[in-house]
């Protein structure tokens, strides 16, 4: 990733933060603590950790594989927290139906276990080299097992389709 792209992404996140901090303080910070509030705060501030991690890669010489693993953990965790928030919303809409009430947590847990395993298998299969030119930073992926990546996305899309199906069929 180009360092200017990383800086612009970080700037956009800061801009969004300052645009919405007033409403966040009003609606989130002074509300009672619960699981959804914790998930929201993790999701809200995890993006700052992502930006710091990406930007530090341009200034600190680190092991490529360690940096790739950290990126994979942050991405997988961030997606899982986002999907957990959406799943809780779906679960709340269907609270009177036992099947849905049981299916969503089981489906979420199982789906994310498979997604995480596939994502890490894919990350470990990637062949990496340092940038081939002195003017370029970072590392380049030169190979990888696409079946692990496809498996991860297939499970994720199946989960997302099921969740959206339940959202579209709520009682009005």
Automatic annotation (TrEMBL):
Keyword Transmembrane helix: yes
Regions crossing the membrane: 38-61, 73-94, 106-131, 138-159
Keywords: Membrane, Transmembrane, Transmembrane helix
Domain DUF6533 as annotated: residue spans: 5-48
Pfam families: DUF6533
Protein's recorded name: DUF6533 domain-containing protein
The organism of origin for this protein: Dendrothele bispora (strain CBS 962.96)
């Amino acid at each position: 990733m180009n360092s200017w792209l990383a800086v612009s992404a970080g700037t956009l996140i800061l801009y969004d933060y300052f645009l919405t901090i007033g409403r966040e303080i009003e609606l989130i910070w002074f509300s009672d603590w619960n699981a959804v509030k914790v998930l929201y705060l993790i999701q809200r501030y995890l993006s700052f950790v992502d930006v710091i991690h990406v930007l530090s890669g341009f200034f600190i010489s680190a092991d490529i594989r360690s940096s790739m693993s950290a990126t994979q953990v942050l991405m997988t965790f961030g997606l899982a927290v986002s999907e957990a928030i959406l799943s809780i919303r779906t679960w709340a809409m269907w609270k009177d139906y036992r099947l849905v009430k049981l299916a969503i947590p089981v489906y979420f847990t199982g789906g994310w276990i498979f997604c995480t395993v596939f994502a890490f298998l894919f990350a470990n299969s990637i062949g990496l080299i340092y940038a081939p030119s002195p003017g370029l930073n970072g590392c380049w992926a030169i190979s990888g097992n696409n079946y692990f990546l496809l498996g991860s996305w297939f499970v994720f899309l199946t989960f997302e389709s099921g969740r959206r199906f339940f959202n579209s069929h709520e009682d009005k």
